[in-house]
Amino acid sequence: MIIKRGKNIYPYDVERIASTVKGVRLGCCAAFDVHNEEQGTEDLVLVCETTVKDKDALEKLKNDIHNEILAKLGIAPDDIRLVPKETIPKTTSGKIQRILCKRIYLEGDLMPKKSKNMVVLIKTFLMSHFHLFRRRLKQ
Prior knowledge:
Layout lengths: L1 E3 L2 E3 L1 H9 L4 E13 L4 E10 L4 H19 L5 E5 L14 H10 L5 H26 L1
Parallel strand pairs: 4-5
Antiparallel strand pairs: 1-2, 3-4
C-alpha cells in the first residue's frame, strides 16, 4: 500500500487504471512509492510499458495516464515513466515484480530485457579480454 497525502492507494488500482489507457500494454505497469527527501513524503511512481515511439505521442500518452488516474483516484502520480515492452521485471508466472522494478528505477537502469542482456554480454566479453590482455603484459 502507498500512502499519499494521507490517502491509502493500492498499487494494483493505479496499474489497472493506467492499463486502460490506449497505448499502454495491458498488465505491464508497475506502481510503487519512492521516498522524497526534500518534502519528507512518498512520491507515487508509475512505470508503464508501451509500443509508442513518437516523442509527441509519448507526451500525450503520459498526460492521458496522468489525467485518467487523477480522475479515478483523486491523486496523480508524481512520476510516470514510459518504457519499451519487456522492460518491467516479472516472475516466471508473469506477475509484476514491483520491488525489483523500484530498485531498477532508483538505479536509473530502466531498459528492455533484450538490451540488458546485450549490455551484460558486452561487459563480460570486455572483462574477460581485459584480464587476458593484463596477463600478457605481465609476461
